[in-house]
Amino acid sequence: MLPFSSISERFEDVARYAAVYAVMLVFFIADVIAIPNPFDWVMSIPFLVIAIYYWALYRPTIMPAILVFALGFMVDILSGAPFALNAMIFVLLQWAVSDQRVFIAAQGFVMVWLIFGVVYSGLIILQWFVNGLINLSWMSVTQIFPQIAVALIMFPLIMMILHFIHKILPNMKMSLSSRELH
Question: Does this model's pTM top 0.70?
């Protein structure tokens, strides 16, 4: 928001940012709700993981680290996951993507997708390992492959939704004079 914006322009900016957080709320609810499936393996679409990846890459101010940690902590509480496991996973994801933001953002979509697959696979393996340490028994490693596959299949669709939301956000570099021209 610009300091000299009119009330209606400020309201419009707030409404645009509210759309981002409304979509994040829907993703949060979708992550916490258990989706029944006819298979033996646990299937979950990592809506929040993809959203954190996207915002850390293209608009890091939308998802500061404290918000990412809070989202992960709330997912842990509501899903019954070990204390702060998802919070740690989410913060690690944001840190890893933010650290390589310039490199990843310069790549094409296929490369961004591939990098997500590598990062997400690493996070899922870390989650599998920590869960195994906590429970002192590890589930079969083959059960994590369908979860990775579902994430990779759903990635383009969720990215399109987030890209559309990103396009409605106000441009941070827009000057007052360029606003007056519209």
Answer: yes
